[in-house]
Structures are given as C-alpha cells and as structure tokens.
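Action item from last week, closing it out:
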Amino acid sequence: MRKFLIHFSFSLLITHHSSLITFSYAEGRSISLDEAYQLALKRSETLAQQKEAVAQIQARIDELWGSIKPRFSLTGSQQWQDEAESSGFSSFTQTSRPQAAITGHQPLFSGFREYLAVKGARAQRESAELSLARAEQLLYQDVARSYLDLLGIHQEIATREAQVKITQNRIRELNSRERLGRSRKSEVLAVESQWAQTEAQLEESRGREKIFQAMLQFLTGVQENLVPQEVAIPSVENLSSFLERAHQRPDVESKRKELASSGLLTRIQKRQWWPSIALDGNYYLKRPAGFQESIKWDATVSAQMPLYWGGSVRAEVRGAEAGERSAQEALSLAERRAELEVRSAYSDLESSLSIVKALEKALNLAEANAKAQAEDYRLGLVTNLDVLGSLSTLQDTRLKLDQAKLAAYLARLQLEVAAGGPQ
C-alpha cells in the first residue's frame, strides 16, 4: 500500500508536468491571444474616442477647404425712414427702401495661407491616425498581459491542486502507519500543517483568478469564463532589426507629422505680411426705386497690405517658431525613448530565457531527487519529511518555471510592441 501511494504521488507530478494546462478551469470558453485582441479592439471606448478625434480633424480640413472656395448668399433688407422736408422725389428720400441681392465672395490671393493650413491639418490628421495605431499596439500589450496573468494563475492553481492531492495521499499513508506504530504523531502533524498551508495558497490563487478573469472580460467584453490557450516559449532575434523598426513605429512617425505641421504653421504666420486680394460681387434682385433701380450687379476687387499691427504678427511668428523647436525636441525624445524601450525589452527577454533554461535544469534535478527520495523511503533510508520536502521543492520549482516561461513570452510581446508591432 505504501509503495502504491508513493508511486501514485510521483506519477501525479509527472502527469501534471507533461500537461501544462489541464485543470478544473478548463470548463469555460477557450480563447487565443489573437482572438482576445480582436475582441478588445472592437470593445475599447478609448480607441473609439480617438477615432472620433480623427474624424474631427477631417471635418476641420473640409472647413479649411471651404474658406478657399467662393461663397454665395441671398441677402435682403427693408429700410423705413422719415419723409424728407424738401420737395421732389429720389431714391434717397423714399420712406420705404426694399433691397434683395445675391452676394458672392472669392478670396483671390492671401499668400497661400489657406493651402498651407489645409496641408498642416492633413499632417495633424495623419499624426492622429498614427497615434491611434500606436494606441492599438499598446492595447495589444495590455491584453497580452491580462491574458498571460489569467493563464499563469490557471497553471498555478493546477500545480497547487496537484500538491494538495499529493499531500492528502501522504496524510492517509501516515495515518495508516501511525495506527501500526510505524510513524510518529509529529510526522502526521507536519504533513497536515503543510496541507493546510497549501490549501490556503490554493484559495488565494483562486481569488486572484477571479480578478484576472474579470480584467480579461472587461477588455474583451466577453462575459463568460475564459480559458486562455497555451503559449510557446519565444525565441531571440537580432537586436538591430528591432531598433530599425522602432524608429518608424507609429508614435515616432506621429511626432514627425507634428513637426511638419508646426513648420507649416510657422510659414503661415510669416505670410501674414503678404498682401491679400479678394473679389466681391452682388447681383440685385430688387432695389429701391430711382436711378439705382436699373443697376443689376456690381463687383469689387479689394486688396490689403499690412503695414503695422502693433507687433502682433511678429509675436505670432516667434510663438510658431518656438512651437516648431519644441516639436523637434519631442521627436528626438520619442526616437530615443523607442530605442530605450527596445533595448530594455530585449534585455528582459534574454534574461527571462536564461532563467527558463536554468529552471528547466533545476526541475529535472528536482524530479530526479523526488524519485530518489521516494525509492529511499520505500527502503527505509529517509523519513517521510524528506520525501515531503522533495515533493514541495519539485512543485515550487515547477511554479517558478511556469512563471518564468510566461515572463519570457510577455517580454517577447513587449519587445514586439516596443519595435512598433504587432505586425
């Protein structure tokens, strides 16, 4: 009986090791990381707000185009005035003066400021679109972190459940041995104490599972029990390729567009010194009686040349130039930050993979030790506490290895996002 229980306990450990995600939480909706991300893209209110911000900028572009095109209006007026004391009749002495006309206004030249404004607004729209793309990438990172948190806690629960079963088997065996006088009461109490601690850790893990479950449901909008699919250990690629991609990632490109827009604003402010020319016209549908009654239309070409505006134009130019310099610094900072994030993520990935490799070796040794301790216990060479200690070490090592694998996978995803992904 004792040999069977020892063999059963060790077999349970090996079975759990070969099946990474076989646990009670398998009763739920299976979901992959890609599916979770696609659901989060549709559900995110933050992304929806940024999309509307892009739509607002596009509306502003259309508004600027409207200022370049001609404008026509239908105007009408009705004036009443006192009778003139002098005798005679003229259009100026009428007591009622109705008038209706179609008026038009067409800017002819203003230093092409309107066209530059349209071009600058387009750069702003492109910047907003790039910011939206970057927000989608950062959402991928948030979803991945939540996804891996849930996957990790499921693995932890599976490991702790296996540990509880193993400890329960040890307790039953020791109770049998105690009745036969082959084990001390202290051995039973030691194992029961270990069992109680493992139960507490299991309940703590189940509590955290509910939190991680709620977070992933919040991101995806799926109100079901979610079961993340298993992920593979990532590989390491060349650092230079990630650094090259990082300089073209959306938020960096967004800063370049902002710099271009700032440069155009500077040009617009400088061109306030240029003359402006416009054409205005009227086609009269009704005019007061008199000599103007037969005049059906008129047109006016007007020009304006700024001479002195109290220094306001010069101040606006200085402000625009300062904004352009600030945009240049923002671009430099974005490039350097992108490179730093790539290097940090790459370093984390290398470190995580080294930890995984070391823990895999430690797990193999822990399994060999647990097997040897079980055999020695069968021969009476070690105590029950030695066997229990080897099993606890094996489970703790497995927990650390599972966490290290997920940390390596997350580091690989963070590296991809830092480089401007996922592609």
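Closing note: The two ends are 57 Å apart (CA to CA).
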